[in-house]
Specification:
The structure holds two protein chains of two kinds. Chain A is 56% helix and 10% strand. Chain A contains 25 helices and twelve strands. By secondary structure, chain B is an alpha/beta fold. Chain B starts with a helix and ends with a strand. Classes of the chains: A alpha/beta, B alpha/beta. Chains A and B meet through helix 7, helix 8, helix 15 and helix 17 of A and helix 5, helix 9 and helix 14 of B.
């Protein structure tokens, strides 16, 4: 009694844990979409979880028995014998039964929710036998009250498992998973068919109770063969039948529901022969035999069998998790490779025009001067402009209106952008070709040929809308601010402004995909704002000419004694770098908006899947379930 | 085999040869396109089988059983040869090693089969006079084609078979595995459909036929009881019923006369199916190629529009050149007359001066304006000196910018990749030399067209401004001054200085007109003619803007023959043509297959056309 209660409570715990695991797995699957995991639907362990364990664990027990087998071997005949009437249509033509028919003990449907027991089927109340023969895209299930059945026994007729109508297989599989007892109808022609063997191998793995019925036997000739057949069948599938019956090939008796089922011993005793007394015994009533089965024991056994399948380390949920983890690691490795190799090196980004910088700095300076100095300055400026005016006019007349340097810069920047985009496409193509299977389709989506001209158009639009004047102003303002607070030598600096000849080409690299590993994390330049450091795309700029120049520049800048043209040069290098950095940042953001979308983030999150909450929760749930089942095994009092 | 039959064989083979020849030609002419390569690999493999057809002319047809385990394949074979040559049993599967049944007079080595695979039995049965039979293992007890499994053995044998006897029973006729396997092997085989176990099962042939007809030709189905037929033959009776008919047909309809016909039909089936597969591959691949073609066209149009716009702008800026062209064509039209002489003189002087500028300034618009003939001559002499440099220079001052080239390349390379065309773009992204050269020659082509159009425009403009009324007016105005001048000079020369004193009209002769007179007279002549010329040219220039716009319109309607990627365009055209050839081949083969199907013998079924 106590053991029964204990059992009940431990099953309740298992039921709760199963529910948790079910929810967690579904959430994880949704999260892991990027990794293209094999779909849950159709995986045996998941279908068992959904169709058997979730609906049947907990609550009071009942037993589902199903008649299964190949097409046109008399499943429906056997079922009708169980039902005691022609509940299911039979015909000489193959794959007649398309939908399962279920006999339900009276009142059962009021005590239980039939729909939750058969989650994949659309339930209909049985009216005529032929409705199960009609083809329809839905998975239908026709149920019918059978008062003569024990109150906890459901009996089903199922579609075939080997005809070309593969939807029948799906339905038969769904019934198999829900079932506790399978009435396996076999014939001489089909007992060794591949499809039949595959089906029963799964049933055996789930520890179903199996009653074998050898139908259409030639009696008495086949008495000597059936043990051989059954032996082959059992050794091929791992089935251990709970009972064996043979039925003669007697079409008339089958039609009249008077087919005799003779029970046979299994395993066959050594001294047993075709003429042994059991061989010519009286036929048995299948329904009575079914009703006399030990329900509780079978139920426990099949639930445990299904749980074991679910928890199987090579075919169950743990292996699914392992696959996800492996895929994620694979992706992480691939991404790491991508982040180190798929770096866009932008070599010929144009240098911003010095003249504009100088003009901008003067402008900034002017705004900051006060009182007497300002007056003097503006006086000289006016004089200067007045003197220069005729020369300027003359030059314009001779050489034509000069193109403003910023316009020139805009032009050459567009060339640089085009080159960058071209290189970007090359890199992406390379990544699609050499990347792994998960990355490939996503990148190919990005690479779609038809999108390219639109991309160019929209980049062009954005580019022509950029206000370089303002960009320059911002750069100069922010840099001058920091400079003026650092260095007291401002005036000297201003005086030498005309000496500036800095023309460096900052070298800029864009790391397209980064997981915070690889070169990006080391080299993300100090200029990069905090926000950028967290993003998946990184930009870092270096002054062409190598680090030496940059370092020298830095020291020159920071040292208080740093004076003269060297300092000025370094400072200008820095100004260029910052400006280029801003421009490339701008481009990168645009590329990301227009082309890559959230692909880098998606990749990052997929590569970090094993650390995600969803994954950890699922793994924990499976672990808990595993230990509960083990506990059940060890604590169980042998009966 | 008599002469007549041999001739017939040769005729049958000749038709196949023709098809083979066309297929080979198609294979050799392969565009640089992945789908095309793939399809050709498939067809090439199949054509190898055509060769075996030739070798196997003399050998008997290979007839094999095919069907699920327990459907009575071995029983049927036993019954067909009339004795128990292969074990028919109640255990599944019974037959594991295929059994090859040949007539004692036949050399089995000639069959081209790997005899080590078979258990060879020589049986002197009437049905084996013209055919050999194989009792095959089943396709449905093995869960996969692992080595040594029945399925693997079966798959090894079936490609060598000409006719399959497909047996089934009430229990198995819808067995998915057997159907799937049949679908894989049936192409290239004739089929005979047999329902066995007539003693136990109901007749399901109608349902079976309905089930098969969507994908198979099912002319006839036999419902046989092999056990009964075997015992009848053992009792020295002729087998009765459907079995008797089947045995008769197998003995009489698969003779030497039918061999080539059946094998040819099998081969054509295979070829046709392979071509259908190729066609559907092409159909999936072609839209990408078409979108590439469309993009190339669009780019060509954009380039041309750019060039046209640029040219129009420059044409409007080079008014003096226009004037000169117009003047020369007007004077050409007018022939010799005083005013046209003035125009010629003016034009000649202008051309002399301008010729210096031509050699220096050489924008494309000027080129076009100088005209096709002159321009070509000029180009030629220039080309000798600095061919590449000049075109490239010209390009940089005109029309297509590097950026535009880069954009084109960017878009096109995406399409190329999507279409799966083998086409190498430049290795170095910064290297635009090739494209620039292409663009320059594109521009030359464009300018050639433009020159012709400009010539035309000038012709028309000149004609419009030089009608007789205009001409008379100008000639009159010019002549008026000349006449006045001549009158003045003549009056002075003849009358005042000579005749007047003689006739006593004047007391003394007036002095002849002095230089003081001629200088202003000439001056006014020059001024007057200049005035008239500029009036005229002003009139000519009027409506120029309008004309240039017309010109742009005209250019917009014309079309550039080549784009920036001529090889790529050629490849695309090649692919389109190739696809059409494929369709032609497919049509021919399908037609061939239908013709053969019409004449093939009645009881043999086969796979339906897809």
């Amino acid at each position: 009694m106590t053991s029964d209660q204990e059992l009940q409570s431990s099953f309740q715990k298992i039921a709760d844990a199963t529910q948790l695991a079910f929810q967690a797995i579904r959430k994880l699957q949704a999260k892991a979409q990027f990794l293209q995991p094999s779909p849950l639907d159709g995986q045996e362990w998941y279908e068992l979880l959904r169709q058997k364990l979730v609906p049947q664990l907990g609550g009071d027990p009942w037993l589902v028995a199903a008649v299964v087998g190949g097409t046109n071997i008399g499943k429906s005949v056997v079922f009708n014998h169980l039902a005691g009437c022609r509940a299911s249509s039979s015909s000489p033509l193959a794959s007649g039964t398309k939908h399962p028919v279920c006999l339900v003990p009276s009142g059962f449907e009021k005590r239980h929710d039939l729909q939750s027991i058969f989650p994949d089927f659309k339930l209909h109340e049985w009216s005529v036998a032929s409705s199960a023969l009609e083809e329809s895209a839905d998975h239908d299930l026709f149920w019918r009250s059978a008062p003569e059945l024990p109150s906890t026994l459901l009996i089903l007729d199922t579609p075939d498992i080997d005809s070309d109508a593969r939807v029948n297989w799906v339905r038969a599989d769904a019934v198999r998973r829900s079932a506790d007892v399978l009435v396996a109808v076999l014939t001489q022609q089909k007992y060794n068919d591949a499809a039949v063997k595959e089906f029963f191998r799964k049933a055996a793995a789930e520890d179903k109770a199996i009653l074998v019925v050898f139908n259409q036997c030639l009696l008495p000739e086949d008495e000597e063969f059936w043990p051989i057949w059954l032996k082959t069948f059992c050794s091929e599938t791992g089935v251990n039948p709970d009972a064996v019956y043979i039925a003669p090939n007697d079409r008339r008796a089958a039609e009249a529901l008077t087919l005799p089922f003779y029970d046979r011993p299994w395993p066959v005793p050594d001294d047993w022969g075709p003429t042994s007394p059991a061989a010519d015994g009286q036929p048995r009533d299948l329904r009575t035999d079914l009703s006399n089965l030990r329900f509780k024991e079978i139920r426990l056994r099949t639930l445990k069998g299904s749980l074991k399948q679910l928890l199987d380390s090579s075919t169950g949920a743990p292996s699914h998790l392992k696959h996800l983890q492996r895929a994620s690691e694979e992706l992480a490795a691939a991404s790491e490779r991508l982040s180190s190799e798929a770096v866009l090196k932008i070599r010929d980004w144009p240098s911003p025009p010095n003249a504009s910088f100088v003009a901008e700095i003067r402008c900034w300076w002017k705004a900051r001067q006060q009182g007497w100095a300002k007056k003097v300055n503006s006086f000289y400026d006016t004089i200067g402009a007045g003197v220069a005016w005729p020369f300027k006019k003359a030059r314009d007349a001779i050489q034509g209106e000069p193109i403003p340097p910023l316009d020139k810069y805009r032009e050459s920047e567009w060339t640089a952008i085009l080159t960058t985009i071209e290189e970007l496409f090359d890199k992406l193509q390379w990544m699609a070709d050499s990347g792994n299977r998960m990355v490939k389709p996503k990148i190919e989506e990005v690479l779609q040929a038809s999108g390219r001209s639109q991309l160019i158009e929209s980049l062009k639009r954005h580019h022509s809308a950029v206000d370089f004047e303002a960009e320059l102003k911002d750069t100069v303002a922010s840099e001058m601010e920091s400079f003026s607070s650092d260095s007291p030598e401002l005036f000297k600096f201003y005086r030498q402004l005309h000496n500036v000849s800095a023309a460096v080409r900052p070298m800029t690299s864009v790391v397209l995909f980064s997981l915070g590993m690889g070169p990006a994390s080391e080299t993300v330049a100090p200029f990069v704002a905090d926000a950028a450091a967290n993003a998946a795309i990184h930009v870092f700029t270096d002054v062409a000419g190598g680090t030496v120049a940059a370092v020298a520049g830095d020291t020159a800048l920071s040292g208080a004694a740093g004076t003269g043209s060297g300092m000025l040069q370094a400072w200008f290098h820095r100004l260029h770098s910052v400006f280029t950095q801003r421009r490339v940042d701008w481009l990168t953001n645009l590329i990301r908006e227009e082309l890559l979308g959230d692909l880098p983030e998606q990749m990052k999150s997929a590569a970090e899947l094993p650390q995600s909450d969803e994954f950890v929760t699922t793994a924990d749930a499976i672990k808990t379930l595993n230990s509960l089942v083990e506990e059940l095994d060890t604590n169980r009092i042998p009966q | 085999m008599n002469t007549n039959q041999q001739l017939e064989h040769i005729a049958l083979l000749a038709e196949v040869d023709d098809l083979t020849y066309r297929l080979k030609r198609w294979i050799d002419d392969c565009p640089a396109w992945q789908t095309a390569h793939k399809s050709r690999a498939l067809i090439t493999r199949l054509l190898e089988r055509v060769e075996t057809l030739r070798f196997r002319l003399e050998t008997p047809l290979v007839v094999a059983t095919f069907g699920g385990t327990g459907t009575g394949k071995s029983s049927l074979v036993n019954a067909l040869v009339g004795t128990e040559v292969t074990t028919a049993g109640r255990q599944r599967p019974t037959t594991k090693t295929p059994i090859l049944l040949v007539h004692p007079e036949l050399e089995p080595e000639a069959l081209g089969l790997d005899l080590s695979q078979f258990q060879l039995k020589r049986v002197d049965a009437p049905v084996l006079r013209d055919i050999v039979m194989i009792d095959c293992p089943d396709p449905d007890t093995s869960e996969g084609p692992s080595a040594g499994s029945n399925l693997a053995i079966l798959r090894e044998i079936v490609p060598h078979c000409d006719v399959l006897i497909y047996t089934s029973t009430q229990q198995k006729y819808k067995n998915a595995r057997v159907i799937d396997e049949l679908a894989d092997v049936a192409s290239g085989c004739r089929l005979v459909f047999v329902q066995t176990h007539a003693d136990l099962d109901s007749d399901i042939r109608d349902d079976w036929k309905n089930f098969l007809s969507p994908s198979y030709e099912v002319p006839e189905m036999f419902f046989v009881d092999s056990g009964k037929a075997l015992s009848e033959q053992k009792a020295e009776q002729r087998p009765s019923g459907e079995f008797g008919r089947l045995l008769n047909l197998l003995s009489s309809e698969l003779g030497a006369a039918k061999r080539v016909e059946i094998r040819r039909a099998n081969l054509i089936d295979l070829l046709q199916e392979a071509l259908v597969a190729c066609r559907s591959d092409y159909d999936t691949g072609l839209p990408h190629v078409e979108s590439l073609i469309k993009t190339l066209d669009e780019q060509r149009k954009v380039l041309k529009d750019t060039l046209t716009k640029q040219l129009c702008d420059e044409l409007l800026m080079n008014r003096t050149l226009w004037e000169r062209r117009l003047l020369s064509s007007v004077t050409d039209m007018w022939g010799f007359s005083p005013f046209s002489a003035v125009l010629k003189l003016y034009n000649g002087l202008g051309a002399f001066i301008a010729s210096f500028t031509f050699f220096r300034a050489r924008t494309s618009a000027q080129m076009a304006l100088i005209g096709a003939v002159q321009g070509a001559r000029w180009m030629k002499s220039r080309a000798k000196e600095q061919e590449a440099e000049s075109t490239l220079d010209r390009l940089s001052t005109f029309g297509i910018s590097d950026q535009q080239l880069q954009e084109c390349r960017l878009v096109i390379s995406g399409h190329i990749h999507a279409a799966g065309i083998d086409y190498a773009m430049a290795e170095d992204r910064r290297d635009l030399t090739d494209l620039r050269k292409r663009a320059a020659s594109l521009e030359d082509e464009f300018l050639g067209d433009a020159s012709r159009v400009i010539d035309d425009v000038i012709e028309k403009l000149a004609a419009a401004s030089s009608n007789w009324f205009t001409r008379c007016r100008y000639e009159f105005l010019f002549l008026a001054y000349l006449i006045f001048l001549l009158g003045r000079v003549g009056y002075n020369f003849f009358w005042e200085s000579f005749l007047a004193p003689i006739f006593g009209a004047a007391s003394s002769p007036e002095p002849l007109l002095k230089v003081d007179f001629y200088i202003p007279a000439l001056l006014f002549l020059v001024i007057w003619s200049l005035f008239l010329v500029s009036m005229f040219t002003w009139k000519l220039r009027r409506g120029l803007t309008q004309r240039v716009q017309n010109f742009a319109q005209q250019m917009a309607e014309s079309r550039l023959v080549h784009g920036l990627f001529p090889n790529l365009e050629a490849t695309c055209r090649h692919i389109s043509g190739d696809s059409q050839t494929l369709t032609g081949l497919l049509d021919q083969t399908t037609q061939f297959r239908r013709n053969i199907a019409d004449t093939s013998s009645g009881f043999l079924g086969g796979r339906r056309e897809t």
